[in-house]
Specification:
772 residues, 13-stranded parallel beta sheet, 12-stranded mixed beta sheet, 74 strands, 2% helix, globular
Length: 772
């Protein structure tokens, strides 16, 4: 193609990085660009400037009509004969500003025309070619919301679309890499919160493309005074005259154990001893025991046997791991023969300086940060040089095994790195009831399966169990799983986070109560003032398909979740399945896949005054069994006084009793706030609804739903209390005295409650009472 020299009167035009050039090259002549003959405007007294051009997709160009004589004001602009244009030909405003279509796959001829409405002979046109534009660069970051305690770590992941260059620069509050005041972030997106303990602070994490520095995405981190609920003010104190002391460094099992200076040394000594009701066994803080604790005795009503701590420093550690030393070498690898404890068939976890290594399936796959189990020779292989480092393997089945014991208390202890469950509670033949167990200020982390597993199949029962001010984190299956019969369980002021599926266990999440069969159900369970977050996330290189925060799976009467916070969980923040008579009240669920989810034969349950925000799937999801098989089973549930907005799919989704498009019988949805109506914001059976009127019509009567922005104080920062003027204030329904309490917005989580009846002329919608 030869190029014709442009006359000086024809300028070279460039818009938005290309995107417009005037023509002088034969291959792009006015003849090529004139468009269909039927669109040629008659010769008139107008001309258009410019009269020919090339424009990239998505870019804009201002056209101007020039008249010989009076221009007039009754002009109409057209693109390919369509007044104002359209999505396929591009749009043009009344002032002549043309914007090319976005979806252009090949060079497209467009005719831009101007015509006088009063005199159609006064018209002119311009020839335009729209070229495919470059794929826009876009960055996304996950998770978009996180809440962290001081010094806690969060992995952020950024994705760049539109280029193969995935380079990312990380910023904390606009400072690359962050600093000690706002926290630091590595080049891999690992953010470490600053070591502060202050009121809630909002931090912005920015992921910027190194390919196009103008493109970025952000996430919001809320720094909490404490992610785990704070300790209470009345810790258990062991009576001095009934105490036995254990010191892993200075103790001696030949001592009497009755004072810190005559302490025992080993847990084996404790397991082999006998204790009386009211006795205490105290472990020295700052010490570690690599033995399994098996309490040998039960207490009595009012006189429990207490296992607790004394001294100063970090809480005592009871670990299911052994230190690995005296390594041998084999080529580039290091290996160590391991002696396994009772019932342990294989090492399932290896830790390097406290960090869990990723397992591989063969020796040849070993690399930095990975380990391999040589089952034939019971050896642990690693790639990294262990010299000067601490390497551990989980050789003990459990850290605490509690079998057929009642009236026992555990306080201020750290259980960790078990081969199966850190804490195992079991019944044996002939023991029909285990009762009055207390776990207070307990940390349980890095178990291969559950942080705590309680198993009580029929005819056994585990009753009156309290778990308070405790933390269950970084376990490979769940924080806690209670399986079987039990009555009067209280889970209070505790946290469940970063529990993730990295083995064959079917459940991963924060805490789950499940029936061992259809009859063995836990009853009268309360989960309150607790937090569940980041469960089901990719902690150890394997992304699970589950990951629920708080889960009632086939429980009996009297079970409730009240005043909890559940966020950034891989599946549901709150899940209820196969249960009857459950109460879900005053909770906040944000940033989960589903906020509150009811599934499979749930009946006569109540969802009152919760706030659900920014779920990636559905905020409130109600459905029967997948594929049917549950006729009439999903019925008579009430969803009232909830705020549900910001969902990625639906603010409310009811798929029906059998997942066949028929809604459950008698389910009630009234006085809820779903924000500004939007496309498909309600899923009703097989229909998607886009207006409140359509919702009322499908429901069959008025839903009394509340429209409009609920006016949260600071949703991005995790504060979902209501501002003055919120449409959710005084517009809920009075649910009666048993449900009058909701969260007081004047304090941080874990919240205290306030009586709805003491404020305003009506009840407020959402998890928080508005207090002027």
């Amino acid at each position: 193609m030869s190029c014709v020299k442009l006359p000086l009167a024809v300028p070279l035009l460039v818009l938005s990085g290309l995107c417009l050039i005037a023509f002088g090259c034969g291959g792009l002549s006015p003849k090529n660009l004139s468009g269909p003959a039927s669109l040629q405007a008659p010769v008139g007294t107008f001309s258009i400037s410019p009269d020919r051009a090339v424009l990239s997709a998505g870019n804009s160009l201002q056209f101007t009509a020039v008249a010989k004589g009076t221009l007039g004001t009754d002009l109409e602009w057209l693109a390919n004969g369509v007044a104002g244009g359209n999505s396929s030909s591009g749009t043009i405003s009344r002032s002549g500003l043309y914007t090319a279509p976005q979806a252009v796959t090949s060079s497209t001829a467009i005719v831009v025309a101007v015509v006088s409405k009063g005199d159609p002979t006064r018209a002119s046109n311009a020839a335009l070619t729209v070229l495919p534009g470059p794929v826009p660069i876009a960055v996304s970051v996950s998770p978009s919301i996180a809440r962290l305690s001081p010094s806690q770590v969060q992995q952020f992941t950024a994705t760049v679309k539109g280029t193969t260059n995935q380079g990312i620069s990380w910023f904390v509050n606009d400072t690359e890499g962050g600093n000690s005041s706002v926290g630091t972030i590595s080049s891999a997106g690992i953010y470490t919160a600053p070591p502060i303990a202050s009121p809630v602070v909002s931090i912005t994490i920015t992921a910027g493309s190194t390919y196009d520095t103008a493109v970025s995405a952000t996430a919001t981190v809320t720094l909490m005074a404490s992610a785990a609920p704070p300790a209470d003010s009345s810790p258990i104190t062991a009576p001095a005259n009934n105490a036995y002391y254990v010191d892993a460094s200075a103790g001696n099992d030949s001592n009497d154990g009755r004072s810190p200076t005559t302490a025992w040394r080993t847990i084996a000594k404790v397991n082999a001893s006998s204790f009386s009701p009211g006795d205490s066994v105290l472990f020295n803080k700052g010490r570690t025991w690599r033995e399994m604790l098996t309490p040998p005795s039960s207490g009595s009503a009012g006189n429990p046997i207490t296992f607790a701590a004394y001294g100063s420093g970090p809480n005592p550690i009871i670990s299911g791991s052994d230190l690995l030393t005296a390594w041998a070498t084999e080529g580039s690898y290091y290996y160590k023969a391991v002696t396994l404890g009772s019932y342990v068939n294989a090492v399932t976890q290896t830790f390097f300086d406290g960090a869990r290594l990723a397992s591989v399936g063969s020796k040849g796959a070993l690399a930095t940060g990975k380990w391999w189990w040589d089952a034939a020779n019971t050896r642990v292989y690693i790639y990294d040089n262990p010299a000067g480092h601490t390497v551990e393997a989980n050789t003990k089945l459990r850290a605490l095994s509690l079998t057929a014991r009642s009236y026992v208390t555990f306080q201020n202890l750290h259980f960790t790195k078990a081969n199966q469950d850190n804490i195992g509670v079991y019944s044996t033949a002939g023991t029909h009831v285990v009762t009055d167990l207390t776990f207070d200020h307990i940390l349980s982390d890095y178990a291969f399966e559950h942080g705590m597993f309680d198993y009580s199949p029929s005819p056994y029962a585990h009753n009156n169990v309290t778990i308070s001010y405790s933390e269950f984190a970084f376990n490979n299956a769940s924080g806690i799983e209670k399986n079987g019969i039990g009555d009067s369980w209280l889970v209070d002021h505790s946290s469940f986070h970063d529990n993730s599926l990295t083995n064959a266990d079917a459940f991963t999440g924060g805490i789950r109560f499940v029936a061992s069969n259809s009859n063995d159900r836990a009853t009268n369970v309360t989960i309150q003032y607790s937090v569940a977050y980041n469960n089901g996330t990719d902690v150890a290189g394997i992304v699970s398909t589950a990951g629920d925060g708080l889960w009632f799976d086939t429980v009996g009467a009297g079970c409730k979740m009240v005043y909890n916070l559940s966020y950034n969980n891989h599946d549901a923040g709150i899940l209820v399945e196969g249960s009857t008579g459950v109460l879900i009240q005053g909770n906040v669920a944000s940033g989960n896949a589903n906020g509150i989810r009811f599934y499979n034969h749930v009946q006569n349950s109540k969802v009152y005054n919760n706030t659900v925000y920014e779920s990636t799937s559905s905020n409130i999801l109600m459905r029967g069994l997948f594929g049917g098989g549950d006729p009439g089973g999903f019925i008579a549930n009430e969803v009232k006084n909830n705020i549900s907005i910001g969902s990625g799919r639906s603010f409310l989704a009811d798929y029906g009793g059998e997942n066949d498009g028929t809604n459950g019988s008698g389910n009630v949805y009234t006085y809820n706030a779903f924000g500004v109506q939007a496309a498909n914001f309600i899923q009703w059976g097989t229909s998607t609804l886009s207006t409140y009127a359509a919702f009322d019509a499908a429901y069959g009567t008025a839903t009394h739903s509340v429209a409009g922005d609920p006016k949260f104080k600071n949703a991005a920062g995790g504060d979902f209390s209501l501002l003055n003027g919120s449409p959710a204030v005084d517009t809920g329904t009075n649910l009666g005295v048993p449900y009058s309490l909701d969260n007081d917005p004047r304090g941080a989580f874990p919240w205290v409650t306030a009586d709805q009846n003491n404020y305003g002329s009506g009840w407020d919608i959402g998890a928080f009472v508005f207090i002027p």
